[in-house]
Amino acid sequence: MTSILLILAIALSSWSIIISRSSQVTETHDNPKEPDSYMENIQATILNKEGKPSLKVIAPKMIHYPENDSTEMTTPHVTIYRHSPKPWYIDSDFAKTKGGINEIQFWQNVNIHHPADTENPNTSMTTDTLTIFPNQQLASTDQAITFIQPDTTIHAIGMLANLNDGTIKLLSQAKGEYVPAS
After folding, report:
1. Which string of b and e fits 119-138 if b means at least 16 CB within 10 Å?
2. 32 pLDDT exceeds 70?
3. I need a labelling partner for 144 at 20 to 30 A (CA). Which of 37, 51, 116, 129 fits?
């Protein structure tokens, strides 16, 4: 009798284990439009081939999507280092990278700033959207932009900037004010 009870107990235990294992479903995220990772309180510095900083990103939250290797950021602060001693600083409410960091799109309350250096005066710009291409050190927008340098404010539609040499081309409807300091 004990043998029968022992065999019955082993059979029920085995059956219970098989049922519990088959009911466990492993979830995979095969949908590239769904996030596969996220980070909080990010402070990342990307180095160039010479080991010098080329790009720095600070953001409270980033969400990565496998589709287009894209990352969404909230309130990012991006620093783009260049050959000059002073980098460019870009802030906005939101940003999204594509292809890793090949392209970064900023939107809503975009502010671009470059402190004065030996080659260029203090420069600030505001716009609704901005796209930068960090590897080429280029920035562009087709939206309204306000461009401010000492004694000068210019409003225009569209801009193309070479962040490395500081050349800024306003694309259309440029209207400016020159008010010399007293």
Report:
1. ebeebebebebbbbebeebe
2. no
3. 116
What's the predicted TM-score (pTM) here? 0.78
Q: Which 3-state string (H, E, C) describes the chain? A: CHHHHHHHHHHHHHHHHHHHHHHCCCCCCCCCCCCCEEEEEEEEEEECCCCCEEEEEEEEEEEEECHHHEEEEECCEEEECCCCCCCEEEECCEEEEECCCCEEEEEEEEEEEECCCCCCCCEEEEEEEEEEECCCCEEEEEEEEEEEECCEEEEEEEEEEECCCCEEEEEEEEEEEECCCC
User: Residues 138, 122: contact at Cβ < 8 Å?
Assistant: no
Specify the residue for token string 């404010």.
153
Token code pair at residue 85 = 């001693």
In whole angstroms, what is the distance from residue 73 CA to residue 71 CA?
7
Q: Return d(Cα 140, Cα 6) in angstroms, integer.
A: 77
Band the pLDDT of 149: cuts 50, 70, 90: very high
